[in-house]
Amino acid sequence: MLGRTLREVSTALKQGHITPTELCQKCLSLIKKTKFLNAYITVSEEVALKQAEESEKRYKKGHSLGDLDGIPVAVKDNFSTSGIETTCASNMLKGYVPPYNATVVQKLLDKGAVLMGKTNLDEFAMGALGSDTGGSTRNPAAHCGVVGFKPSYGLVSRHGLIPLVNSMDVPGILTRCVDDAAIVLGMLAGHDPKDSTTIQDPVKPFTLPTLADVNKLCIGIPKEYLVPELSSEVRSFWSKAANLFESEGAKVIEVSLPHTSYSIICYHVLCTSEVASNMARFDGLEYGHRCDINVSTEAMYAATRREGFNDVVRGRILSGNFFLLKENYEKYFIKAQKVRRLIANDFVNVFNSGVDVLLTPTTLSEAVPYLEFIKEDNRTRSAQDDIFTQAVNMAGLPAVSVPVALSNQGLPIGLQFIGRAFCDQQLLTVASWFEKQVQFPVIQLQELMDDFSSDFEIEKLSSVSLKQ
C-alpha cells in the first residue's frame, strides 16, 4: 500500500480496503524501521494517530473530505506547524513551537491529510529538500526516484514558510507520480491574503487532461545545459527522451538561454544577500536560542549567533553582508539583479518563439551511493545539483523532475521539464504523458526493509541497487 499512488490509496480508503488508522500505523512502522536514515526531525505519532482516527470516523459516516482525507503527509521542518516544534534543523530554533500553521499545512489538514511529522533538511534549507529555492525539491526527487514539482512563484502561499530567499522560495511537492503532484497542487494553489506575492486571480482545478496531440507540442532543448560535467548516462537518457517526443510527432528544437553561464554566480550573490537579511531576525531577543552571556547586548548577539548557526549559515551571512556593503551594493547586488532579469528574459524569449516546454537534465549525474555522499561537503553538493535548477527559481517558472530510469548502478536518474509562468497545468500534463511512456519502476522501500531485518543488515542499504 505504501508504494501506491495517492489516487490509488485514496480509492482503497474509500472502498474500505484499508482504514486511515491502519495506513497511518504502516507509515509509522516504516518511519521507525528507517530511523537510521535520519529523515525525520520530529515524528508526530500521537497527532497523526488522532488525525487518522478522525478521518476514519468521517469515512464511516460517508463524509470524506476528498482525495487527501486519511492520506499520510510529511512536512519539511521549515514550515510552521501549530503545536509541533519547528526547528529548521538549527540550534537557533531548537524548542520553538509556532502558534499557527503555515497556509500550505493548514490547507492539507483542512482536506483531512494526516501529518506524520517534520522532515530533515540542511540548516535553514541551505541546500536541502522540500521547499524549493534553487532546486531543493527537484534535486532530491531525481536522486530518490520520485516526482519533484516546483510551482510558479506566487501560485502557492509562502505564509508560514520560514524564509531563506523570499524572492525565490516556493513550497514544493514530492510525490510518487505526476498526477499526485497535480492533486496536491490543486489543494494548495490560490490567493492567500497573508501572502501578498500570491496571485489574485482564482485558480482553476488542476485536473490533468489526456495529452492527445503530442504532435502539436514544441519541445526546447537548451544547448547551454550540455555541459562537460554532465554524465554520459544522464546525457544518453536526455537524448532518448527528446527522441521519444520526436518519434511521437512533437517538434523538438535546440534553443539558447545565453545568460545561463552567469546564473550560478548571480544566484549566489542574490541568495546570500537575502539570507543575510533574513537571518538578522535571529538575535536571541524575541524567540529561539539565546546564549548565557550577559556582559553586553553586543556580546550576547555574537555568542547567540555563533552557537545557533552552523558554519554554512554563518558563511552565507558573511558573504551576503559583504555584497550588501555600501561600497559593494552597486557592484554586486544591483548587477546580479540586472543579470537575473536577463536570465528571466532568456526564458521569455524562448517561450515567445513557440516553445511549449523545455526538457533538461535535473542533475549532473545519477544518485550518489550513500557512502560517497556523506564524504561530500554542502558547498560541493549544492554547486553540483543546482546547476540546472536554480535559474528557474530566479525566473519564477514552474518546473518538475520526473524519474526516467535507473543507472547502471541501479540508482535513479531524473529529467526536468520547465514551463511558462503560471502554465503549471500544461507542464504537468506533458510530464504526465512522458511519465507514462517511460514506465519508471516503482521503488518499494517496504520490500527492501523486509529483506534487511537486523541493524547490521540495514547498513547494507548504503550500497543497495534498486534494480530487480
Describe the model:
- There is one protein chain.
- This protein is an alpha/beta fold and 468 residues long.
- The protein contains 17 helices and twelve strands.
- It has helices spanning 6-14, 20-33, 45-61, 103-110, 138-144, 178-188, 232-247, 263-279, 297-308, 311-324, 329-352, 370-373, 378-385, 390-395, 424-438, 445-450, 455-458; strands at residues 40-43, 72-76, 114-119, 131-132, 147-150, 170-171, 173-175, 218-222, 251-255, 357-361, 399-406, 412-418.
- The strands form three sheets. Strands 7-5-11-12-10-8-9 form a seven-stranded mixed beta sheet, with helices on both faces. Strands 1-3-2 form a three-stranded mixed beta sheet.
- The two termini are 19 Å apart.
List keywords for this structure.
17 helices, three-stranded mixed β-sheet, 12 strands, 468 residues, seven-stranded mixed β-sheet, alpha/beta, 41% helix
Give me a quick take on this structure:
By secondary structure, the protein is an alpha/beta fold. It is 41% helix and 12% strand.
